[in-house]
Amino acid sequence: MSYLDQPRINFAGTFQASPATINNTPNNYNPANYNTDSLKPENIELYWEPKGDSIFDLINCSVTTVEAPGVTTDPLQGSTVTALYTSSPPKLVDLDPMQQNGSEIWGFTVMIGGFGGAYVQGVFSPVAFNGIWGNSQGPNTPRNSASGSAVYLSTLTNLKWNVGNSPVLQALQAKSPNRLSIRMVVSAHNNAPQLYAFTTATFQTMLSKGTPQSVLNKIVSLQNYVMNVDANGNPVAPGRGYIPTEAYVSNLLEQLLGQSMAQQYGPGILAVAKQPYQPWIDYNTTKPLPEQPLFDFNYGKIVGSIGPCLDDEPTYAVPARTLAPPAGSQSYAWWAQAKLDTQSKTPSLTLDLANSLPVRLPGRPLWQEKIGTLSLAYYTGTGSNKTYTTFVPSIDYSNPAFINQQSGMLVVTNFGSTTPQNLANLPIALQSTTTVNGKQVTQTLLEENSQGLSMRANQFIFRMNPGLKTTPEFPLGETNTVDIYVRKFGRVEGTEQWKIALSTMTPAQASSYTLGTLGTSGTNGINSGNISTPEGALVLSSNQLSITAGKASLTITGKDPGNPRGYVDGQVYFTQYTFSPSVADYNPDPNDLLSAQIYQANPITGTPTWVNGIGEILRQYGMLYPIMGRFQLWTYDGVVENREKIQRVLSLDISLPLHMPVSRDLSTIKCNLIQGWFNAGMPYDLLGPAGGPGASWNNLPTVLGWGPMTGLVVRSGDIIDAIQPLYGSNSAPIQGGPGGTPSTITLNSGDAIVSMTGYTGTYFGMQQIAQVTFRTAQGQTYGPFGTMANVWSAQPFQLSAPSGSAIGSFFGTTVTHSGGTTFVASLGGNLRPL
């Protein structure tokens, strides 16, 4: 059972989607394209929402109609449908900059009704949209994803019920108390931002209106910002200096001017830079259209339906009859699901058309002039020998209520002279009749294939971490099970005679596919040389699957792809599936495929430090997701200051809205490395060690947060007995033994140790630090400590901190001789930035 069944709740309203767009192109992942000190973009594409917070939310949504046998009125009708959350709204998450055609919703709890009356609430199982297409098809429709429409198909779990006096909730709970099926269609998303122009002309106007030249000099870099460039790196219209959204511009002004000056001059600068807002234009005249977006920036239209779902049914797929555009046709419609019910007292055919028919402009009513008269028919025969018999001569779709109140759900109970039971094994078709040159022309928009076959993978988006085990609690490991559901005229019977053939796209196929999608088209930095390579990293347990009881299953395994894309982690792969033997008129949705992001298994070689890997990871995310700028991810000191907050959001379950990063494209492997780095005391960089093996020790976790080293106690005699750094009134634990003579070093204010030189050697059979001398940034020398008496095979060592860093604490090993005396065996420095 599913949303195609009754009882059913339909709702409509507005949705908010504000994804961060700086991560929309692989080119923006390259740190060479932004200033490493402040993360100020220097050669990146902003796209339309650079400061997006990745929110997905429901706004002013309400129950429009309810459908259940015998139910004519219900108090639930008109009640709210909301995203239920306390601290953070749900998040919209892309899989990869090379696969943006599958944005998922995470951390989403849906509530139908209110706490003051009847309600049901449930957790939305995270899923990506599917069925994305350009449903807005008028000559002046926006030439971007704003003209698109897509479907989210999932289930609600962990249900909480208060059915009260609502007949439809009572009936739903009786049929499926544990799960509900939910389908949401999103369209008309307004991704046209308010633009602000920073050009020579606007700077002259700002100057004439009182902005000092000294202030303008500080923001002149804004003239170089660009929203989009072409394949050759040249800015496209409106060109350089045009920056989207007041929030992002205000953030830039505060960075460049400081808070006080931005507050003083920012309003005047914004007033001059603000451009007229009429984003929809006539492409012939380039003048604004009389009609403009119905929704504010980052908002769009949503209609949804909720129905029963039994415990043993798929989480995401709805195995049903599927109508598709005839293969090779010029149909302007999109795939639709249907269910024929011949078991109920009143037989019915339910057809979901919410995401199947065109509009002239985003959010407007269905395009009646183009669609004409819609009818339903069944056909016999195949190929060019098909004979269509109409059983519903006219569908009333022109009333806006069909979409806005009925959620595009067509329920047929009058089959004319056709017996509903006869349709159980006959392919059905949706046809359009229009007048062309004075003649009636009928066109088949959608139809089932002659065999009535349909199939759909349950889960189709995968994040895979090679080397990590997949468990029910951790589905992001190196393996996943893929279940593909197959139906013949909506039933399991008769499906076993076919098999499912699978093939993973080659790099050339993958590049062609993703650049042809509505989500990823126009993205720079994607080509057959950097996508889906190396081949073979996504391993299928079989390339041909048997179908049993309407289902086929396989295991996919993600092998380490290495780092073929440089600054973008891992690799993304696509796997197609179809029937074997082939079905001549089977036409799958081109986006019905498996998308797998396989992360790099070993992103850091050696010990993770800020300099060795960690800083590069965190700085990149600070750039790609400005909403995380509050954590100051681009500087070591900023991360140290915000370490508790960062650790907390990194450790949250990936399903929670506050999980960081909001994009979910930070691999578990990298998250574990970052958490391990935090637990190790957040080393900036390592210097050394020099010396021999022994019991390991490290001051850093203890002294983190104590500030700079102010002194040092060294105990020495023949060799180095012990070492103990000092931090004002705090002393780190002494490492070594109590022997030797203590010497106390007091560093000058602002000074720091930048090098250690000396000798290692064998002391009574053990390799140890024999002598050490410390030098500081201000040129002070302390030592040498250790006389080197009784030392054999002495070898010199020199450990010098790179420019801009100093030793903040120490690590190394100790050894204990047979007599019980302990000495320092090896010594290294934990560096910190100066």
UniProtKB/TrEMBL annotation:
What PROSITE patterns is this protein classified in?
A: JACALIN_LECTIN (PS51752)
- Domain Jacalin-type lectin, first and last residues per copy: 683-833
- Pfam families referenced in this protein's UniProt entry, alphabetically: Jacalin (PF01419)
Q: What InterPro entries does the database record attribute to this sequence?
A: Jacalin-like_lectin_dom, Jacalin-like_lectin_dom_sf
Q: Give the coiled coil ranges.
A: none
Tell me the domain of life: Bacteria
Tell me the protein's name. Jacalin-type lectin domain-containing protein
Q: Which organism is it from?
A: Hyalangium minutum
